[in-house]
Amino acid sequence: MADLLELLKSNPYPGRGIVVGKDCVYYWIMGRSSNSRNRIFCLEEDGIRTEAFDPSKLEDPSLIIYHPVRKVDGALIVTNGDQTDTIRDLGWREGCMAREYEPDAPNFTPRISAYIREDGTFEISILKHNDGTCQRNFFCYEGVEEGNGYFISTYQGDGNPLPTFAGEPIKVDMPAPEQVWEALNADNKVSLYANVGGKVTLWNKNQGQ
After folding, report:
1. Tell me: the pLDDT tens digits for 21-63?
2. What is the DSSP letter of 145?
3. Fewer CB within 10 Å: N-end or C-end of the chain?
4. Is 2 exposed, middle or buried (0-12, 13-18, 19+ CB in 10 A)?
C-alpha cells in the first residue's frame, strides 16, 4: 500500500485525481494554464460543478467547466469531465463506452471516472489514447478496508506532452482531506472536493483556502 501524501508531494502535476475509500471520496483539479487555474468548485443540489472564478478571464470552457460529481439513484458519480452527465444518462458501463479521451492533442488527456454504490462497492475507469484509438480500462472493487482507498489520476507527472497515468489504480492509505490539500503542489493545485461519511467540504485556492 502506498502513502498518498508522499505520492502527491513527489509529483508536481498529477493533474486531476480521484481517490475512493470506505465512506470517503476525494477529487481534485490542478492547472498549468491561466484558464485552467481560473476555477473554483461550487456546490449543487446533486453534487458539485466547476465555475470560472473570474468570468471575464474565461477563455475556452469546453474541457474545464463541467459537473465533476453527481448523485443518481443512490450512487455517486465522480469524473474529470462532462462524461459525468453521460454516465448519469446512459448508466455506468454504457456511459464510459460512449466516450473517449479528451481531444486536446498532444496530451490526449484521459477521462477518469468512478461509480460508488450505496453498498460500498465501486468501479473506476480510465479512457486513454492508444495509437490513435481509445483504450477503455475498468476496475471493479467489492469495497475497501477502513483507512484504505484506490487512487487514479490523469497524468503520471509533468511533461510536454503530459504522460498519461499507467497501470491499475494505486492502493493507498486515506489521510485527512486537509492533508491532501496541503500535499498538492502549491503552484498547480486549484480545488479539492472531499466527501467523508456524506459530509462534503470544498477547498478553492482562488478563494484563499
Report:
1. 999 999 999 999 999 999 999 999 999 999 999 999 999 888 8
2. -
3. N
4. exposed
All three cell numbers of 50, joined, read 466547476
Rounded to whole angstroms, how far apart are CA atoms 199 and 23?
A: 10
Grid coordinates of 137: 480500462
Q: How far apart are CA 34 and CA 58, in angstroms?
A: 9
Give dist(CA 68, CA 90) in Å, integer: 16
**Of 155, 144, 141, 71, whose CA–CA distance to 112 is shortest?**
155
Count of beta carbons in the 10 Å neighbourhood of residue 92: 18
The residue type found at 114 is: A
Write the DSSP string, 87-128.
Answer: HHHH-HHHHHHT--S-S-TTT-PPEEEEEE-TTS-EEEEEEE
78: which 3 cell numbers? 465522480
Is the model's pLDDT at 209 over the cut of 90?
no
Taking Cα atoms as reference points, which of 16, 22, 7 lies closest to residue 148? 22
pLDDT recorded at residue 63: 87
pLDDT tens per residue, range 159-168: 999 999 999 9
Going by the DSSP 8-state scheme, the letter that residue 57 receives in this structure is G
